[in-house]
Amino acid sequence: MCSVHDTIEFEKRGIPATTIITTAFTNAAVFQFRAKGMDGHPYIELPHPVSNLKPDEMRELTLKYVEQLVKQLTA
Question: Angle CA(61)–CA(46)–CA(33) in degrees, nearest 5?
Fold first, then answer.
């Protein structure tokens, strides 16, 4: 999962970052954070799947996570 690796690299540089995944990738993300020494790093988990959503449905879904995203990036 490149997004986890990117999040870790940003964090190492002092830049707040998070990863957005769907539930199908939770275990992989947790494992990768742990393997890279960042066990417990927060992430945002969307329901799976999202690839079948229309643009307006995806917008509606993601807007539900904006507050969580802001909290993770400003904590």
Answer: 145
